[in-house]
């Protein structure tokens, strides 16, 4: 039975992952901003078989609350061995171009708050000599594109940070899995036109749980995104700058 902390627990992908863990009888400590949604999720997960499900309302941008939240997770579950960080926002690129304040806010949410959490979690897992950490980054972080480079830049920061953290914690028996979803059909992407490359949250969550169980370093979900992004990264700048992606 695992003791699992999920940050951004009310996101569609995190909810789907929580259901998988609940059906396996794991213990869950759920963090998100909306208390009402959290309480509804807790009730659902208990019905599905979770050995424990605890709600902890918190905005991840309140960095000063991170340490207290971790203390509560350890106390509530009697320890901690697995963490999934899944919070974030889908930045409006045009609005970020027009507002420095909004751009900074988006980078804070999608990168700085994640790295702050990882610093504390990494230290605790290093001290206990074990643990599994999964972090949702994005394929958008593999190469900046005009259509979403603020969001992509934040995710690139997360990908680079987790790479270094993974190398550091390897000797402490702590796995760090960087998760790079492509297009996922969630409420956050409801306004976007869907196509054949889009995946459902349940399918993505199943791959995330499998990758974290295996202690994988990096996983693209669905897997075909690895090949798509390899091609995009290899396009020469003189060509890349002339196309729309």
Structure description:
There is one protein chain. With 245 residues, this protein is an alpha/beta fold. The chain has a single domain (3-240), classed as NAD(P)-binding Rossmann-like Domain (Rossmann fold, 3-Layer(aba) Sandwich). Helices cover 50% and strands 16% of the residues. It has nine helices and seven strands. The chain has a seven-stranded parallel beta sheet with strand order 3-2-1-4-5-6-7, sandwiched between helices. The longest helix is centred in the middle third of the chain and has 29 residues, at 100-128. The N and C termini lie far apart (44 Å).
Strand % is 15-25%
State the helicity in percent bands.
Answer: 40-55%
- Largest sheet, order of strands side by side? 3-2-1-4-5-6-7
Number of strands: 7
> What distance lies between the first and last C-alpha atoms, to the nearest angstrom?
44 Å
Order of helices and strands: EHEHEHEHHEHEHEHH
Largest sheet: 7 strands, parallel
Task: Please give the count of helices.
Answer: 9
CATH class: Alpha Beta
- Which architecture does the CATH hierarchy give at level 2? 3-Layer(aba) Sandwich
In the CATH hierarchy, what is the superfamily? NAD(P)-binding Rossmann-like Domain
Write down the CATH topology: Rossmann fold
* Low-pLDDT regions: none
Q: Which structural class do you get from the secondary structure elements?
A: alpha/beta
| Mean pLDDT level | 95
Work out the radius of gyration.
18 Å
Shape: globular
Number of domains: 1
